[in-house]
Amino acid sequence: MEVAREEGVRGPVVGAWRFASHVARARRAARELRRETADLSSLEEAVALAERFESDGIRIRPGQERSEILRLLEIVRVERPKVVLEIGTKFGGSLYLLARAAPSDALLVSIDIPHGYHVSLGVLYRSFAHGRQRVRLVRADSHDAATLRRVKTILRRRQVDLLHIDGDHTAEGVRADYAMYGPLVRSGGLIAFHDLVLPGVAALWEELEGEKTEIVADPNQRTCGFGLLRRT
Question: Which of 9, 45, 81, 146 is 20 to 30 A removed from 94 (C-alpha atoms)?
């Protein structure tokens, strides 16, 4: 019985130790990233840092082609969105870069499924905020009605200036994200569709009407690209 009790305790203890270890790694990464970010003077340098950054195996490399994400960030800087909503956090690269391009008082909300990233990485992702920015993370299925309610609670009736859809790239997934979160975007605000060249995203893009901008480095490429729709 003594052995059984010890083994019964050991599991939770080891689990807690591992979690604490993950949090410590994320904190170290946050400190290192803040230190390197302090020396940045341009969006180009921010993109280069996101692509090369590594700390204890933690990386934030964005899943976008460099010239495409840079063009998007330049537009974001001009638009000065006060409320940014992202669907698809993953490694945090695009969230980091959007925070760099957005005003110093912006609210950034990022949604991803619970197993999209380890919960300890929230320590790192929240550290992306600078000035009076705030980063709020929602670890939930974007297609769940409860997730939409959580986002609305965070927004407190504010409208979204920039919606970045980079979650489920299937035809059904991207349509659901657009239908659920598109109405949160203010008139004149922007909706960015990542991986524009993928069939599921491209099909919806062709159906949409309005002021549209395509950011695609190579018309023959098989992944990435952005589509920007200005909401009427």
Answer: 146
